[in-house]
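sorry for the late reply, my laptop died twice this morning and i had to redo everyting from scratch. anyway the thing you sent over, i finally got around to it. pasting the sequence first so we're on the same page, its 301 residues, then the predicted structure underneath. double check i copied it right bc i was rushing
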Amino acid sequence: MYEGFSTDGNYRDDLISISNVGGIPGGDAFLVVTESKSAIIDAGYSFSAEKMMRNIRGILGERQLDFAILTHSHYDHASGAAYCRPHYGDCRIISSEYAARIFSKPTAIDAMRETNRSAAEFYGWGDYEDRLGDLKTDITVREGDVIDLGGVSLHVLDAPGHTKCCIAFYIPEEKMLIGCETMGCFASKDLVLSSYLVGYQISVDFINRVKTMDIDKLLVPHFGVITGDECRKYIEGALRSAVMLKDFIINDHLSGKSTGEIVEHYKDVYYNGDLRKIWPVRAFYLNAEHLVPMVIKEILG
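ok and here's the structure:
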């Protein structure tokens, strides 16, 4: 279905280069470099953040990292941003206003700290320095705002569905969408994994919006950049997967399965070998145990 995907998800042309600098698979971060500026899109986990910083330094050399731009507030996307300023003092963290409010809550930071510890155990990672207390947004953005990356511009799109704080970015100079998990994630060669934790319909609405845009390149969370026809196939696959997962849950519910039974069925079908390598089972259950009753309530009232 998705033959032709880059094996590493990296991209380069005359205006921009994009490289996955995440410290570990599943804790991905994408370094965007233009002639005069640089930014990471998402920042991975806390425990692998220092490795991410070494990866960034290996590409930037003596250049500065200007921004850490976060698509949403989940621990596997935002935690590593707290490690940028000790290495790059002028680096500014950019997020939605909603994500900024989340980072300001000690209870939310404590939850991110605990899920990072759990993920570190899953990966067999050793000790690491916890800097999550330093995670704060410097610049908030919303729909219609533009981030200047020197030669290219990131136009902010509100994209709630996976979370309330999700945002995406369109680069008109590249006809590129920097996506977020409201569109789902690349799970395997044949699977887009939907992850609408806030709402099914608003997620579908965003994907349909994306279908109308002039897009020739797509940065897929936890994978990288895909281009041309494969890009458009992925968008169609994201929409199809969103509907299929909704139907899967509703059919199970109408057949008499309990929420717990539906979650286990969902795990058996969707939590495949590729996902098991990069997604701790605890994180899968946290998502599934929220997603399943949300879909039932939204669709059936």
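The CA atoms of residues 49 and 83 lie 7 Å apart.
thats about all i looked at so far, will dig more tmrw
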